[in-house]
């Protein structure tokens, strides 16, 4: 795997939507690919490994022009950080990256989601934070065709989830941001852990259609935190009182 060894592997958490029926046993994960820099073809109920690299926007481009996968050796991402996740395919999951481990404004402020090698897919770089603003809620859609990852993209809600909320600023008509100095790690009161809502679209290797994207797409970014009961005391509660 080509990810520079100097990247720090973060402890990342995958929390599954608590009302998802647990009809699927963990033993039904038949995907034996655990590296985010290897190719896999998945079916419903498999786990799927992908990575999110945090770095400066320019670090994701080769020769300032071509955006490459973070798995590509030609990029020098040594100053960034990497999180690896393995959610269950087609389950609605929330990924969290705890701000005790990651202060995104100090490591470049952008993130790229990626998976695969020969069939490498990567998202465009998403702004997370600078010294003024931080965006803590994202929705990532993973699009598969016949079980192979084809595309990764950030779904924005045009700031509808924070319109009229005085603590939020709408950046570029797409991201709800708060001030970085509201974060606990900057002396404020908010746990600025990054939450990434995940949804799957397209088809698995048996051409079975994924449904989780359909379930997520009409919900607003921050309102999704309310779905995760085990986050109630940390992330959910604080955004409810913040709004
Ligand atoms: C980098 O970009 C410059 C200018 O666009 C070009 O001349 C050069 O060949 C490129 N280098 C590589 C290795 O692609
Ligand atoms: C992040 O980690 C800190 C310290 O371990 C903990 O107190 C906090 O609740 C965590 N936040 C989330 C969202 O898990
Ligand atoms: C932080 O990002 C926002 C939105 O892109 C921008 O308007 C602002 O100038 C940036 N601040 C700094 C200090 O870079």
List the helices and strands and how they pair.
Elements: E1 8-10, E2 12-16, E3 50-55, E4 61-62, E5 66-67, E6 81-85, E7 93-97, E8 110-115, E9 121-122, E10 126-127, E11 133-134, E12 137-145, E13 148-154, E14 169-171, E15 175-179, E16 194-202, H1 212-216, H2 232-242
Parallel strand pairs: 1-6, 12-16
Antiparallel strand pairs: 2-7, 3-6, 3-8, 4-5, 7-16, 8-9, 8-10, 11-15, 12-13, 14-15
Bound molecules: 2-acetamido-2-deoxy-beta-D-glucopyranose (3 copies).
Residues 127, 130-133, 171 line the site of one 2-acetamido-2-deoxy-beta-D-glucopyranose (NAG).
Tags for this entry?
five-stranded mixed β-sheet, 2 helices, binds 2-acetamido-2-deoxy-beta-D-glucopyranose, mainly beta, metal ion binding, 16 strands, disordered N terminus, 243 residues
Model description:
The chain is mainly β. It has one domain. 7% of the residues lie in helices and 30% in strands. It contains two helices and 16 strands. It has helices at 212-216, 232-242; strands spanning 8-10, 12-16, 50-55, 61-62, 66-67, 81-85, 93-97, 110-115, 121-122, 126-127, 133-134, 137-145, 148-154, 169-171, 175-179, 194-202. The strands form four sheets. Strands 1, 3, 6, 8, 9 and 10 form a six-stranded mixed β-sheet that branches. Mean pLDDT is 82; it is low at 1-11 and 17-25. The site of one 2-acetamido-2-deoxy-beta-D-glucopyranose has 7 residues, from helix 2. It comes from Deinandra increscens subsp. villosa. Residues 1-18 form the signal peptide. Keywords: Signal. GO terms for molecular function: metal ion binding. This is Expp1 protein.
């Amino acid at each position: 795997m080509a990810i520079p060894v100097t990247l720090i592997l973060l402890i990342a958490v995958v929390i599954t939507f608590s009302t998802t029926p647990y009809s699927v046993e963990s033993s039904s994960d038949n995907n034996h690919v655990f590296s985010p820099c290897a190719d896999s073809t998945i079916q419903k109920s498999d786990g799927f490994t992908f990575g999110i690299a945090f770095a400066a926007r320019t670090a994701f481009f080769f020769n300032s022009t071509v955006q490459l996968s973070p798995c590509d050796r030609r990029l020098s991402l040594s100053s960034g950080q990497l999180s690896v996740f393995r959610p269950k395919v087609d389950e609605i999951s929330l990924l969290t990256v705890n701000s005790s481990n990651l202060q995104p404004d100090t490591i470049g402020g952008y993130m790229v989601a990626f998976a695969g090698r020969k069939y490498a897919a990567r998202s465009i770089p998403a702004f997370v934070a600078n010294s003024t603003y931080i965006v803590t809620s994202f929705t990532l859609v993973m699009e598969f065709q016949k079980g192979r990852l084809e595309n990764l993209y950030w779904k924005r809600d045009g700031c509808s989830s924070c319109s009229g909320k005085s603590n939020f600023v709408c950046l570029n008509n797409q991201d709800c941001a708060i001030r970085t100095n509201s974060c606990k790690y900057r002396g404020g009161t908010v746990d600025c852990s990054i939450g990434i809502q995940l949804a799957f679209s397209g088809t698995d290797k048996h051409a079975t259609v994924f449904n989780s994207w359909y379930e997520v797409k009409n919900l607003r970014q921050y309102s999704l935190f309310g779905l995760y009961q085990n986050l109630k005391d940390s992330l959910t509660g604080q955004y409810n009182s913040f709004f």
